[in-house]
Each structure stands twice: as C-alpha cells, then as structure tokens.
Records
---
Amino acid sequence: MASIGDERLSPAAQLFNAPSFNCYVIAIMGCKTSINPQVIKRGLCQTLLKHPRFTSKLVNNFVKKGRKTRWTQTTVDLDNHVIVPEIDSKIEFPDRFIEDYISNVTKTPLDLSKPLWELHLLNIKTSDAEAVAIFRIHHSMGDGASLMSLLLAATRKTSDPNALPTVPTQKRASSHHRSSSFWWLFLAVWWWLGLIWHTVVDMVLFVLTILFIKDTHTPLKGAPGVELNTKRFVYRTVSMDDIKLVKKEMKTTVNDVLLGVTQAGLTRYLNREYARADENGGAAEQSPISVLKNIRLRAAILVNIRPVAGIQDLADMMAEKSKAIWGNWMGYIMLPFSIALNEDPLDDVRQAKATIDRKKHSLEAICSYACAKLVLNLFGVKVTAAITRRVLFNTTLAFSNVLGPVEEVSFYGHPVAYIAPSVYGHPHALTIHFQSYANKMTISLSVDPSVIPDPYLLCDDLEESLKLILDAVQKKHIDHVI
C-alpha cells in the first residue's frame, strides 16, 4: 500500500483531539495462555504496523489559513508502544488488580510525539483468563467499529491459524412486494414523508437538547466535569445463545434484545437506588415507582454514516493489497429509554424494538454529522467540541453493540477467552458496550465510581434482566405449545 504521507484529520478526528473532548478507545482481551511479548511484536509488525494510522503521529503545520493538525508518517519503535510490566504472580485479588491497572493507565494521556496507541501485556492469571492484553487507542485514529474490525483482522481462527474470523453482517429488511404500481407508489410516498417528518422532529429535539433539554438527574448521571474523572472498567459475560433464543421467539434483532435488557437493567438499578434513598431519608413526597415514571433518560449512540470496511478488506489493507475506506465519519442519535417497572419482562424488548424501528426511519445520524461538519468549518474546533459535549452531557449514557467473531480466535497465536471494549473521555458517567464473541456476549461498563460506586450491582441487574426476559420467553413458548 502506498504511503499516505501527510493527511488532514477528519471532522470527527479534530473533535476527538479538542482539549474538552479528548476520547480514547480501550479494548481488553483475555487470553487462555500466557502471553509471549516477542511473538506479539512480530505479529504487530506483520499487521497493524502496515496500517497508516498506527505508523502516523499528529503534527501541527503552519499554513496560510492558520494552524492545521495532520497525520504524518513516522518510524515506530515497538518498545515505546508495547508495555510489559513486571507483576507479582502471588497477587491476592488479580481481577481487582487488572481493574486498578486499567484505571491508572487512563490517568495519563498518550504521548503526541508518537503514534497514538499502546498495548499493555499483563501475564497474570484472573478468574477467566491466563493473561490480559489491553489496547489503548486514541479515538481520533478511527471510530470504534472500524478499530475493533481492524483488531479482529489481526486475529485468526483458533481452529485454522490461516483463516480470518467470521463476523456476521446485519441483514437489511427486505423490500415490500410490489402488488401494483399505484399501491407501491403510495407506500413509497408515505415512507418518504415519514422519513422527512421523523428527521425534522429528531433534529428539532437535537437542537433543543443543545439549548436546554436535559435528562433527569438520576444516580446514573454525572455532574459537570465528569469526562475528567478517572473511570472504572468492569464487565460481565452472558450466553449469546440465550440472547439469540429471545431474538428468535420475539422475532426481533439482537440489538432490540440488548436495548431491552439495558432498559430493564437500568430500571432495576434506579428503582433500588431510589428505594434505598427513601428508606434512609424517611417519608418522601413520591414513591420510587412514581419517580421512575417521570424520568427522562436517553442514550447517545454513535452511528457510522458509511459502511465499515470488512475484516477481509482490512486484512488486505495490512497486507498491502488494497485500500480500504478509513476515517472517522460518525453521527449521533439520541435513543430514549422507557424507565418503568413492567409486569411483563418482554415489554422492555417490545418497547426497545418500537423505539429502534422509529429511529431507523430517520436521517438523524447523517444530519447530526453534516451539522457538526458545517459548524466546524464555520466556527472551528472549540465551538464544535463545546456543542458536541453539551449534547452528550445532557443525555445520561453512551451505548454501543459490536458484532464479533462467531468462532474462537487467536491473537498472534494466543487463544482469546473474551473481548471487552470501552471508551472514556466523553461527558458520561456510564458507558455500556455489548461485544459478541463465539457463544458469549460481554457486557462492558465504563463508570465514574463517584456516581456509580458499585458497578457490579449494575452488572447484576443487567444479567438478571436478561434471565427474566429469557424465562418469560420460555414460559410463553411452553404455554403456546401446550
């Protein structure tokens, strides 16, 4: 692949480099064997180091129109990027040690004089891995989906060391049958009118969120300056088969199920926190159930507005065979959650599906990206970052769901036990990522411990919500058969 030389930053990359919006991607991989650092370094030389972003640093150039930051290729010294700390093998609580280690790593920004990534290799046995690899990558290098796809393109099937992993693709809904030209024309016009109307409504709400609409202050919402607080990263693994069963029986998508589980889990967490506050504070004007009904709680979701390069394309890019599309082109959508204690656990999935179907019929993500790019060109990075930060701060959490390999993979010969991605540096006290891998789904949380002091409770609530939904589906299926 030809050298890219100097390359200007995309609008999103410029935002992620703004002092008030300095974001990073974290990818934690548990390995089933101890890690050989030399093998990892040789593997990096053959894959990631052939990607231009991993061999480029940020350089400020002075041009006629002002100071511009660009990607400029440089020589990479792997010893400055691959960190292998000496660890006492007799640590009493290794899982806690890993969490503390990651939190401490995030306290220090990456060195701008070299490419903005690093890999920590920790040969310490935890409850579900023999060793742990931790990638830290600046968000300006790419969007989360592209970076995760790139990392997976550097892995191979455990069953076949020469084969790339298989990642499922999201299927598009099939088009309606054209029973007659007139009826099809009517449906098409109605569909376009709905798309325009939904887009206008969503963008009006987007603007109002910038101006004054804020989510309710709850035990999940951070205070001003939350993006500067050190985060804690925890995860929980659940069965992918359970999620697929709910999806099949309810005729929904995996994303519908995950958002339904998230809505139910957040409701359980908030209900317990308000009940606890009620007990500690004595009589209250409103019961916890009444408080829940009046909560406005939204998730900010980053959406790629261009197709993400496939694993094969990225593997070819690193093998210098092709040029896959790369960049950081993302728009935001704001997804509302219905916080209520539903008698039927399946209602959470039904509500999530209705909300997502409505959001799919809108150009909110494309319009939010276009508006951000316009503001960036007119007013610069500082104003755009301030507006973007305000939109995110006025919502409660960030959410994402990333499809992973359907079979077990190896990271340069090291079998992977789990993958847990996350981000930090944005103004949320809570970020929830779902990452599928083989027959597992990892629920990865990034939390501000001053807001959510015990994130394991929230993991419990999410796991229990999935169990209740699964039990309800199985009971419904049995009743239907009988």
---
Amino acid sequence: MSVTQFFVKVVLQNSFFVKVVVSPFVAMAATNEVIVAMVPFPDYSHINNLFDLARYMASHNIPVHFLCFADVNKDLKLRFQGGFNIHFNDLLRPSSPIEKEDRYGVPPILMYLEKLKEPIYEICVELSTKAKRLVIIHDLIMSEPILDVHTLLNVKSYIFQTGSTFNRYSALKQTIPDIIDDDYDHEKLVKQMQDEFPLLEPHEKFRFKMELELKHQSGEIINSCKEVEGRYPELLANAKEKPIWAFGPFHMLLDSSSSNNMTRSLELFLDKQDDNSVIFVSFGSTTTLSQEQVNELARGLEQSNHRFIWVLRKGDNVEKLKEKLDGKIELPEGFEERVEGRGMVVNWAPQLEILGHSSTGGFLSHCGWNSCIESISMGVPLATWPISYDHPFNSILVTNLLKIGISVKSWSHRDELVTASTIEKAVKTLMGTIQGDEMRQRAVELSEKIKSSASRGGLARKEMESFISHIIK
C-alpha cells in the first residue's frame, strides 16, 4: 500500500474531491526559464498557505500555475484581484462522492485523488513545453497524484509540509529511533515528559517509513522558521537527507497585507476592549465537540469572567448540535444573555485579523499548525487543547519549548471530558495572572524576532530567496 493510503481522513471529510476538467491554458512565451505549478491538497487550510507562497513567488516575476478546483480558483481570484503573475487551471468536483472504503481498506479520499493523476499529468505536460524547467510544489498528500509527472525530463518537485518541523522530526524519531544521534535536547525532552509525550500508532509509523521512501522530490518546504523551531529544521533535513527550506510564516512574506475581513460587529467589540483583555476561542474547521463538551466550554468561559470571542461552527458537532429558529447554534440556556457585552459567539471569524488586534491577549486553540504559527507571529500566547493529528506535538512546542502557552488538556487525557472548572482555571491563568503576563511577553518578543526574520534582509526572507535561487539556477 502506498504512503498516501495512510494519510488522514477527518481533515478530508469537509474537503472537495474530484472529477477534473482542465481550463484552457494561458498562452506563455516558450522562452520561460522556469514555470512553477502549485498542487495543493483541496482543503482551505492547505490551499491558503500555498496561495500565499504562490503570490510571493509570482512577485519575483516567476509564472505560477495554481491547480485547484474551479470554485476555489474563482474565490481566490475574487479575494486577490490583479497584480499577480498567477494562472489558474481548474479542477471540477464530482457529482456523487464515494463514501466508503474499497475492499482493500483504501480511504475514499485516496480514490478521489487517484482521479487527479491524468488531468494533472496533462496540464504538466503542456506546461513543461513552455519552459526549460517545470517546478512542482505539491502538498505531501498529493505525492501519488503527481507521481507520473516525474517521467517528464525537465521536472523537479518539492513537497510542501503543512505541519511543524518539530512534529515531523518527533514522528520520524519514534519511527526510526537511530535516524539521528545528535539530538540530545530532544531526547532529554522526551525523557522528561515520559508518558505525556505523544506516541504514534503502528499505522502512523508505517506511514512515516513510507514517506522516507519518496525519492522523486528534490526537497521540502515548511511554513515555519528557525526563530520558532531552533535546530529542528536542521535535524529534519539530516534525518530525511534532503534540503529543508523553512521560511514562514508565509503570510508575513507578503509586502502587502490582505484586506481586512473583520465584520463590523467583531471590530466594534474588539475596539471597545482593553489591550490583551480578550481570549479568542477556535478549534479549526474540522473539529467535532460533543454537546456535553460544548456545554462545559460555555460554562468555563462564563465562569472565567473574562472577555471572549468564540467561533462555534456547525462542524463542532455535526450530528448532535441543532440549530434554533433564529439560526444560532444551541448553547446552555441563557448563556448568551448572561455574557452579553462580555463575550461573542460566532460561526466564523477572520482568525489572523483577530489575533493581530491589540485587544486579543490569548488564544484557546486545538493547536493546528496554521493556528499556532499565526498566533505566535502575532505575539499571542495559547491555551492548548490538542484534538488529533499533529496537534499534541504542536502543543508541546508551544508549552514546553517556547513556553508561551498553558495546557488545557494533555494528550494522555485526550478521551476525557474537559470540565468547566478546568477551562475556567486555564483562561484565568492565561489572561489574569503574572504567569500569563510572562507568557504574553515571551510571545511578543518572539513575534518581533519573526517579523524581523520575515522582513527584507531577515533570515526567513533570505531562506525564501535561497529557495527561489535554487529553483531558477
């Protein structure tokens, strides 16, 4: 079974898969030295990262082709109009997605992705005739759909990893313990944490072994930076025996910030609050919380007596949460009335803009890597509540290594209900104690280092320029 057959399912359940129609090619001069083709995994948390990277590379006068679903491409065009050397190749969704594994246990996502092989190959064949070199930057999960592209003589490909280098190195170290023997600090951390350090399941170890066997790719790109992860990019590169470029956060490499997506009600609420007085609560787009857990979280926020913005989507409980006639998700009776003026519950919020607002002083998060790197880059400490995948490793990075977070729920207790009193205590510690202030100060200092690194002449910016030089030489 191939490596992609062990990639995550849940993150894909809200994603979009595929029978493909290719849009007409944009005419280009045959004298292009390099064309870059971006192949994201079709989930917005992945798409947004690669599109930020596409925008930056296009600003260096490199033609970039973005291979994604037609409706996603249309949305990206509307959000970022004009000024970019980016071309879109459209992939269309299927009318009736497969919902069950096949008789060999292959997840539905992989059967969908299999359908991408031929269309992606056809696009890349055409693009390869327009330049001396075609550079493919693809999500790790898309390794198999682009497999045939490597038969083209002028193609080089690079994996985009969505997680942290700490997560990936920790997983590889568990999979092959002797893969690197010069990581005493990591070994010390694992020993100190004992049972609290996350352990991989056997199928996860198998997946990482298969990942090491990917031979066609020329290197990897990670949305991170050395200011955040120290030696881990170097350790990961040594372990995989391939170059690793860590030059994030991608959103900070862009000279022009994205447009303000803040709704008027959110903006008014935040503008009225004192600096660092609001805790932002969000568990990403695919998290499912039980009704009982939603109730405990609501009571914990209420009892903390701190100001908050809570993003509670339908996805937080697909089956059990019912909508009232007024369209609000069900919450404990009288909750919204009791917290009126102090807290807001919304079904969507512009995360980066909220984290960047001066009133935001903490982030209660599931610790997806995008959430972590955005919070860190904005100088906001975290209350960590890992749910799945790489979340527990990211939580350790935040709490144990960077010391800019407090644990709400440890991975060893992941199947237990988090009580209102636990949530209340964590919020009060992060938002109203000297310990929380010290975490916040460290987060601000780290944010300043990241901003300096991502600015012109900074380390992350130089790393990005190094990658561009590498692919065009």
---
Amino acid sequence: MKVAILTSPNQWFIPYAKELEGKISNSRLYFSHCEIQEPYDIVFILSYHQLIAQEFLDLHEYNLVIHASALPKGKGWSPLFWQVLEGKDSIVFTLFNADAKADNGAIYLQETLHLNGLELYEELRDKQAKMCQKLCLEFLEKFPTLSPKAQSGEESFYPKRTPKDSELDMTKSLESQFNLLRIVSNEEFPAFFVKDGKKFVLKIYAHDSTDSAGGGGRLSL
C-alpha cells in the first residue's frame, strides 16, 4: 500500500509529519500536492493550506483529512483554538475522506482529546499533532475494515483567526481571559493590549514546578 503525507511548507506541523513518515512503511512526505505525480492508495492531508482541485482527489483512492471538531459542527478555521477559547476541555478529532466541499466528506474515525485546562500554545499544538498521528496510524491498522458514515446534524463554521484576535481587554481579569492567553503564539501572534493609543505586547510561559521561583505561569511585558 502506497501512502503519501501532504503538509504545508515552513510551518509548525513539519517535524510531526516527518515523524509520521518514519512510522509508516512505503510512505513519502510532500509539501505541495502539485509534486504528487502518481496515484496513491492513501493521501493523508494534514495541516495543509492550499486549495486542492477535484482532479487531484480523483487520482487517489483515499484523501484523508483530520479536523479538530465533531463534524459537521466546527467546520472552518482553527477549530481547536476556538473551542479552547470557549472553555472546552474535550475536543473531538474527526478523520474523514475529503471531497470538493470544505470539511464535508464521509467520516471514518473520531476520537476525543482531553485537555487539563492549563496547556499553552506549544503544548496544544503538540497534543493536536500527536492526535493526528494517532488517527492516521489507527486508520492504517484497521484498513480496510472501517465503514464510513456520512456527516449528519447541524453544521457550524469558525472564521479565520487574525492577530487582532489576540487582543486582551484591560477592563477584564486575567482569569477571565486565560483561555485567550492559552491560544496566543508568543512569536507569531502574541497577546497585546492598547492603552492611551500605545500598544503593549505580552508573552506567556509556563514555569517549571522545579524552578526556584515556584510554580505557576509567567507573563512578560
């Protein structure tokens, strides 16, 4: 069985994609679907940000995508982060076969990621990626006995997040905005607030419990 792994270049998921490639025999990692010139039995499309034409999908037996929501709820952008912002600590991940519409294909697997409520951006990304790896390997282990099911129920959509979404409200407590602080990236889209027309950036880190300063988190301004 030939397996392709497709992810976008220059982004956070690449180390995990390479790790997954090492766990799947007869697999190859690609950074653009245009590079894939031969048909594959399975193409895992993971954290990939280009539009893919139906002609490409038709070349392969399975084009599998993983989305961090209980589809058809939570279609769209950054579903994991939106749900963390909503205060959810159980996130359903869905592995489904891609079709021409976004987040719309038949479902093969769903598993729940349980969070402790304290994970920050990097740890959330790590848990997200490891769940994606797990679902890919589970699909291969159970293939071809899995039976797909059509998506059913009311669908909902998340919009694309922008750096503006990392803005803190100075009139609210840190406690009430902690989930927002969990999903900001200190380097790419850090938390910030504006006072008297001047922008201030905050970066958040988790202290090691063995640190001499004690446990808890640290904000730097």
---
Amino acid sequence: MTTESAPAAGTGDTRWMALALAEARLAAEAGEVPVGAVLVKDGQLIATGRNTPVAQHDPSAHAEINALRAGAAVLGNYRLDGCELFVTLEPCAMCAGAMLHSRLTRVVFGAPDAKTGAAGSVLDLFAEPRLNHRTQVQGGVLADECAAVLQAFFQQRRSVAREQAQPLRDDALRTPAERFAALGDYAFAPHHVQDLAALQGWRLHYVDEAGPPGKDGRLACCLCLHGPGEWGYFFRHLVGFQGLRTLVPDLIGFGKSDKPKRDAAHSLEWHRDVLLEWLDRVQPGPMVLVHSASASGLASLVRAGAGDRFVAVLAAPDAGERIKDAWRAPYPDRGYEAALRALGPIASSSGPGDVQAAVLAGVAREAMGYSAS
C-alpha cells in the first residue's frame, strides 16, 4: 500500500481509530470478525489491515498482522521503528508478540478483550520486564464504537444460527429482529418454542422474567395476555417486580412470534389451545391472569380450559400510551397483517403504566398469599 495523508476529520488518535473502524466494518461485510487496524508513521498512513482468517484459511491473518505485513512491505524493512499501530480490539498474544518483534513505538487499541487480550485484560506482554523492547500501549480510544461493531456482528450471527435451528414455515413470516431494536424498556431475554403440537410448526415468542424473591423466598406468577392488534411490549411495566415471575407470550401472528400469511390460520379457540399446551410446557404453577381489555374473550377461554391454574383474573388498566412505533414494529408491511385482518386491528389499549403495574403486581402477590417485602 502507498503512503498517504490522514483525513482531516477528527483529531489525534480518534481519526486513526476511525479509519481502523472502517476496516473493521469491511471485515464484517466479508463475514470476518470485525477487527481493523492502521499503521501510521510521522503523521502519515502507511498501511491498513483487517481480519481475514476465514478468507485466507490462515489463523494468523489478524488485522494487526495484516497491517504489519503491509507496512513492512511499504517501508522495505521488518523493523517498524517510529511506527504506531491503531487497532479496534485489544491485541491477542500472537499479535502483541509480532508488535514487539517489529519494534513499534506505540500501540493504541479500542475495545478491551476479556477473553484473549494480551495488553492487560488476560495478560500484559507489553509490561513484561524481561523482554528487550518497550512499546507504549494505550487502550479505550473509541472503545464504545469499537465494541458496538463487534456486538452487532455476533448478535447477527446468533440470530442466523437461531433461524437455522428453528426453520420458518413456507407459509409464515418472521419479523426481522432489528424492527424491535429501537424500542425502549424491552431488553428482555427472548424465549421461543416451536415443537408444541398445537403450534403446527409456528414459532411462539415469550418473555419469562422473574424479579427478586420476596422476603418469604417465593415468587407469585403472573400470565399477561394481549388481544388483537397488541403484543407483549405493552406489558413491559409488569416485568421485574420483586416477588413476581412474569410470563408474557406473543400470540401467533403478533409481536415477535411467527405470522401466518393467511387469515384462516386464526381463531380464538386455536390460540387458547396453543396457550394451554404452552403452559403445560413452562409449568408455572398457580397464576394470576392479567389481560388487556381486548383480550377478555381469549382470557375467558383460557381460564375455562385451565382448570384451577388461575387464582385470580385481573383486567389491566389502560396506561394511556399511544406508542406508534411500538404498535407498528411487528408489521413492516401488509403481508404481516393476516392476524389483524382475522381478529381485528384493535390497538386502543396499551397495558399498565408504571403506577398501575405496581398496583397489579401487589394485587397478584396478595391473591396468591405471597409477600414482596
């Protein structure tokens, strides 16, 4: 690579790290772990590098090694005296060793690496007094941005793995996860089930979160049911209360669950059967049933079919929210709206707000004879 001047944008270390981040993003686009590096000398960009172990079938083809190799070729010397290396992730032991052998003056990295970092996280080769070269090290430059690129990459890989493990029916749609990413107060661990007989291959998403146990060490259980045009997001205020385990399923066709393309897939009786079989799977024990106003019919069917599972049934008050983005998130286009056509696009209620949720949680615990404090 030829030597060139740095871009005008940014100042000091951040502008070079921004270039390294650009290399990391190119690595991600190629399916490699997104790490990028740039080599600088006397304020001039000497070389760039990004991760290529997969493409090159080479376990040593880390971003730093690629940048060092390219820089040595440009300078015509394997000694890189006076050079600085900027890399988006804390170097591993292999790369740290190569940096010391190349006699770099300085190494700057972005995000720490708690698993393999050799600049202080797992070990610190640069601080080893018995080595005959000293390289200055600085971490944390654009650390959040560097970490975000890595997190997004691995989140996408996990999503792909889940999709492959839980195939989508040919006559179904699955709302992309990024549609929900911007919604606040809904960072709950996702749970999915697909192998229930009643589901017929559709995938059901649900939230199952337990708050801290009450002083008696027990948890009351609350099942939250939404109605047509709603989804589990509108019960988010009920999640996490002390002494309360909260189960919030997204009915098939809504929220993060699979969405049949045809209206005929839906009936309240079928949704009841799915929920009852799902409850047999999650084994919650005695519960309080909380439902939105539009879910009263389904709640009655579920209660009638559940025997003595429910110790109380409560209607959730409307919090008065009108969250357009949250309501539209599961429906990127009209192809996703079969359930709305079949059961009605009712989106007038929104579940309890903070104050009402606290009251509901207290009533649920009292109905089961449990104490939170």
